[in-house]
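User: Could you check the structure of this?
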Amino acid sequence: MRTMRSITHNVLLLALVAGCQTPQYGKEEQLTLQSRTQPIWAVAPAVNLSGEPSVDPLLQADLVYQQIQAVHNVTVVPVNRVIEVYAALRIEKVESEEQAAIVCEQLGCDALLIPTVTAFDPYNPPKVGAAVQLITRPGSVYRRNVNARELSRRATPGFDESLPPHPNFIQVVGMYDSANGSVRDAVLNYAKGRNDPVGPLGSKEYFVNMDRYCGFVYHSLIADLIREAAKREADDRADSNHPAVSQRATLTAPQG
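Assistant: Sure, the predicted structure tokens are below.
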């Protein structure tokens, strides 16, 4: 009898000690663009291809803007500035690299970031498909008196024109279905340091709040994007430093 009381006392004591311990905040993953410069990126309104009418393109763009702001070595132009340029050019969205270059010129930025929502299921377990495209500006393309109507018509090259040999864009795509264990683990890892550990939902809030879940999706895509951007810059730098090799053939006159 005395042994049972001792065991019960120890169990209650352990429970009391555990209950008095305050849950600790985690440490969120930090993203850094590995670049020799600090580029300026502008975030465009999102394109909704999911068929879900509740998707707000401006809200999605704001979520992307929040995630890009947390990336070190990148300066971000908010979506409202891009909307103003769209309105001035009388276009609803960018449909070519030429259009993106002109928008970037008007904003004074180096690249335009365009998010796209391809799937959107807000019910538990949530599922989001998305893409992020980064279109860089190839030098200065300043033009006077830009014809916005002609700009809209020239979404593709003309009949006798070819596509550029080296596209100035990077695109990353992903489908994030929280019914999959690997995605759930990634969400919980992302939630470390970003949620209140003593809140009523804790990290589960990321599965019931679509803004937070979309934040995880864009964080994952942006992590892939900055890796690709750093790799592209390193490859371009290596190509520019590589000495040109002459391909001219040498003709030797026959002897005798």
